UniProtKB/TrEMBL annotation:
Domain Lactate/malate dehydrogenase C-terminal, first and last residues per copy: 156-327
Active-site residues, as the UniProt record annotates them: 187 (proton acceptor)
Ligase recorded as keyword: no
GO molecular function: L-malate dehydrogenase (NAD+) activity
Domain of life: Eukaryota
Positions contributing to substrate binding: 92, 98, 131, 162
Protein name per the record: Malate dehydrogenase
Length: 333
């Protein structure tokens, strides 16, 4: 039998983890033949809730799940893990300034970066979901110098899934008939959802979304707005933030990183920027990537028109500002 891999989920007593743990333990990320040992990390006040999650995982009677290790100690949580879903973060409280939120999270991700550096496998794949996800991933990587920077990523797959779903609905085609919709930049309201490289499968051929749709005002207006504000719309309706869809997207992200992307297909991931497409270097920026042998590569050579360039600049500037604020918090600690 294949040897089990260790996978950590932080924020394991929270609402995203409640859906995510089940999906991982069913084999939807690492495969139906890959046994797992799940490490569940949360903070001490949540230890009781964590016990309930452990009971439920046991009661699911999942054949791939060899062991579940609940803990409030990062040293235990990150020991020998091959994959890390960093979901736990400090939520924004009423009246909290952006800087205070960033400051609280920078500290969490510093500690977790240090623990990954010391205890995780050196080829661990790290997906940061907790917000501000891009800058948290940057901080985490900076404190884990023994792990390659390429192994750290931030989640924009939920935004990609939302955007793909909007395009499929607009075209009246099944979701599987739409591909290569891109999210550029930050997982925030400055993100740029871009259907310009999108493909749609109609009458047995892949065609350009922009040509088939022929509606630039929609693609440059309501489409971007809907995707940027979708999280707020879910909160307004559900009175809680997106959890099921966030969990599914975290699975999609890690699944594709682990297993690769099909030829010609690309997906969006927040990764270390090398300055491609005129973006700032050394921020975690969401790009279209292709993945082979567990290594992502930024898709090159796409045409960026003036409209797209201005959108990339806005979100790139925000990421630069976040990075500088995070660094100033770290220096003053
Ligand atoms: N990137 C994305 O697309 C995306 C989408 C949705 C949500 N999010 C973010 O994901 C995060 C989690 O969302 P949720 O709905 O599950 O929130 P939640 O409040 O239900 O759960 C968060 C959990 O994290 C725990 N936690 C806090 N600090 C921790 C630490 N230092 N170590 C371990 N655990 C810690 C909390 O105790 C809590 O159990 C939030 O930051 C949210 O903004 C990101």
């Amino acid at each position: 039998m294949t040897e089990a891999i260790r996978v950590v989920v932080t924020g394991a007593a929270g609402q995203i983890a409640y859906s995510l743990l089940y999906m991982i333990a069913r084999g939807e990320v690492f495969g139906k033949d890959q046994p797992l040992i799940l490490h569940l990390l949360d903070i001490p006040p949540m230890a009781g809730v964590l016990e309930g999650v452990v009971m439920e995982l046991a009661d699911c009677a999942l054949p791939l799940l060899q062991e579940v290790i609940p803990t409030t100690d990062p040293k235990v949580a990150f020991k020998d893990v091959s994959a890390a879903f960093l979901v736990g973060a400090m939520p924004r409280k009423e009246g909290m300034e952006r800087k205070d939120l960033l400051s609280a999270n920078v500290k969490i991700f510093k500690v977790q970066g240090q623990a990954l550096n010391e205890f995780a496998k050196k080829d661990v794949k790290v997906l940061v979901v907790g917000n501000p996800a891009n800058t948290n991933a940057l901080v985490c990587a900076n404190y884990a110098p023994s792990i390659p920077k390429e192994n750290f990523s931030a989640m924009t797959r939920l935004d990609q899934n939302r955007a793909t779903s909007q395009i499929a609905a607009k075209l009246g085609v099944p979701i599987a008939a739409v591909s290569n919709i891109i999210i550029w930049g930050n997982h925030s309201s400055t993100q740029y959802p871009d259907a310009g490289q999108g493909k749609v499968f109609i009458n047995d051929v892949w065609k350009s979304v922009t040509e088939v749709l022929n509606d630039t005002s929609f693609l440059q207006g309501p489409f971007i707005d809907i995707v940027q504000k979708r999280g707020a719309a879910v909160i307004a309706s559900r009175k809680m933030s997106s959890a099921m869809s966030a969990a599914k997207s975290a699975c999609d992200h890690m699944h594709d990183w682990w297993n690769g992307t099909a030829p010609g297909k690309f997906v969006s991931m927040g990764v270390f920027s090398d300055g491609s497409y005129g973006t700032p270097k050394d921020v975690v920026f969401s790009f279209p990537v292709e993945i082979k042998n567990k290594q992502w590569k930024i898709v090159q050579g796409l045409t960026i028109d003036g409209f797209s360039k201005s959108k990339l600049d806005i979100t790139g500037n925000e990421l630069r500002e976040e990075r500088d604020e995070a660094l100033s918090v770290l220096e003053s600690n």
